[in-house]
Amino acid sequence: DLIEPPLKRVEAHISKQAQSFDPAVEDYISYACGSAGKRLRPALALLAGGATGEITPAHEDLAVIIELIHIATLVHDDIMDGAERRRDQPTTNAKWGNAISVLLGDCLFAHALRLASGFKDSTICRRIADAAADVCSGEIIQTQRRFDLNLNVQDYFRIIEMKTAALFAVACELGGVVSGSDEKATQCLKNFGTNFGIAYQIYDDCLDLVGDESTVGKTLGTDFLKGKFTLPIIAMLDQANDEDRTRLSDWILRHEPEDFDRLREFILREGGLAMAVTAARRYLVEAQEELNVLSESAYQTGLSNICQYVHALLDQIQPASSN
Amino acid sequence: DLIEPPLKRVEAHISKQAQSFDPAVEDYISYACGSAGKRLRPALALLAGGATGEITPAHEDLAVIIELIHIATLVHDDIMDGAERRRDQPTTNAKWGNAISVLLGDCLFAHALRLASGFKDSTICRRIADAAADVCSGEIIQTQRRFDLNLNVQDYFRIIEMKTAALFAVACELGGVVSGSDEKATQCLKNFGTNFGIAYQIYDDCLDLVGDESTVGKTLGTDFLKGKFTLPIIAMLDQANDEDRTRLSDWILRHEPEDFDRLREFILREGGLAMAVTAARRYLVEAQEELNVLSESAYQTGLSNICQYVHALLDQIQPASSN
Q1: Which of A21, A111, A125 sits opposite B117 (nearest CB)?
Q2: Distance CA A160, CA A79 (A)
Q3: Phi/psi of residue B147, each to 5°?
Q4: Do B120 and A122 touch (CB under 8 A)?
């Protein structure tokens, strides 16, 4: 509610971006930008801006840029995953094939950085490009290590910090920078974004095991079948005795649909999911603690409330009392 | 020779870029950057810089950035074309698959724009991002219009101006901007790059019909089989009588290998290739005329010599006397 008016303007800006392109390309851009996501990153950028000053049109530009980069990565992710649907709509690759979708992601990405170069302070553009490079690097490492049973908890956190948390972190950090926040506040916003992003990715990982297929919008076990190790699996492997580890490893390497059912049942029963949820909650708490550095405001509370929202989502998959 | 020392430094910089990435990603970046291309765009950026001032480290940075963007587009092109080899090396998609290659292109692209944000003058970063968006948009239109017999000469020029000439133009333009060139010189360098880039793309198109497969590094007829209309084909369709147009159209739409042989023979005999070569020469001459605005220098001559080099390449496929 607090940021509803600027968030609406961000949405309107996003839907107008297609006009910056050649008419022959407009429709593709419109379609990719139109599949209303949760706009979580724009919300964080605006709240971080409000928590350190006034929300200005520059914050809205920042929010648009970050979301365009996010959309570009989704377009490319869907190609790599061969995904047919996203948010109840056909993916761009399902509609127009991989070639157009590769280029469409590139266009969105180039456009985001073109907008970013409009900031007088060139640090902003650099930090956005840094985050984009981190996101892609994290995804490369994830792809490279599919089905790699040596992937440990530390590797996992390195990957999700790059592929997911980097963009959340830069949204929060630059929300502050655009407000002219001091170094301490900027750093705490960045840390907030990193911790929040890690928690959010862990939550998203858990959905591959226990999500509601109709709301999540993808089939359970998709990550498992593609050899992407999620935290519940990695934590379970880490804790298991030799015999259990062998069984889990066999299921993972064979990855038939029935192996997913067995693994899922094992992980829910033996506490892998609970461990992941506990880890996510810990990162949320760390994120919230960072907020103490900021002066009290409705926006600071807003940032905290987004953490509470994810706490509540985690409750739905693993009630806090059972942890 | 004139730009050999800075061009060597550019090459060294390019090979060092991998170090900016996570160690797990370095090898991919090194491989993509290592397949020594002709470095035509860096050469133009350096010559444009020299023709309007002194070649400085900033020009070398510019050259690196432009080449990284070019490499990123090649990585993505090879995915879309399903190409197995480029310059006698396996493509990144042949080595590591499409998923890694999509991300690798994205990484290179993000990194190029991160470097571009290092220029104090934010116009430079914006113009580079503009050019990148044009390149991708041009490729989208090309992909969208494969096998579209309504594609006319004008559409063709619009596509190649975006997908190829935009990056040449920005290399030349910004070479001048980095030297602090005045508006008139900057504009003439940009026009030079546009005209040169168009000529170069027409030449490259002709190679699909008459190139030496061992030097071009791809099989003749690749563009034809993929429905990418090159200028010799479009010019021929434009000039043909109804009967010939029907024959050409049939070959194009059926696109069996023997259709390529028939079409190739027809186009060589009936002057389609000659028309394309003539057009390329015209753009080279226009490029060279732009150079008259610049004061005389070895670098101005160097830019002209690059045009002469392409004239000579065109001579090899269609001797000037036979035009």
Answers
A1: A125
A2: 20
A3: 60, 15
A4: yes
Distance CA B207, CA B213 (A): 9
The nearest alpha carbon in chain B to A82 belongs to B99
What is the C-alpha to C-alpha distance for residues B231 and B221, in angstroms, rounded to an integer?
13
Tell whether the model's pLDDT for residue A295 goes beyond 60: yes
Residues of chain B in contact with residue A116, where contact means CB-CB under 8 angstroms, are 117, 129
> For residue A323, what pLDDT is reported?
45
Phi/psi of residue B217, nearest 5 degrees:
80, 10
- Do the beta carbons of residue B273 and residue B210 sit within 8 Å? yes
What CA–CA distance (Å, rounded) separates B290 from B185? Answer: 9
* pLDDT tens string A99-137: 999 999 999 999 999 999 999 888 999 999 999 999 999
Q: How far apart are the first and last CA of chain A?
A: 32
Q: Name residue, tokens 């104090």.
A: B120
User: Three-class SS of residue A165?
Assistant: helix
Contact (CB<8Å) A120/B120: no
- With a pLDDT cut of 70, the percent of chain A lying above it is 97
Chain B: residues touching A (Cβ < 8 Å): 20-22, 24-25, 28, 72-73, 76, 79-80, 98-100, 102-107, 109-111, 113-114, 116-120, 122, 125-126, 129-130, 132-133, 136-137, 139-141, 143-144, 162
**How far, in Å, CA of A115 to CA of A133, rounded?**
17
> What are the angstrom distances between the C-alpha of A256 and each of A219, B187, B275?
14, 61, 58
Sign of the Cα pseudo-torsion (B143, B147, B153, B154, in order): negative
Give, in order, the Cα–Cα distances in Å from A229 to each of A18, A208, A223, B12: 36, 10, 7, 38
Compare A323 and A83 and report the one with higher pLDDT.
A83
Kindly determine whether residue B122 and residue A126, on different chains, have CB atoms separated by under 8 Å.
no
Using one digit for the tens of pLDDT, what is the confidence trace for B298-308? 999 999 999 99
- Are the beta carbons of A10 and A46 closer than 8 angstroms? yes
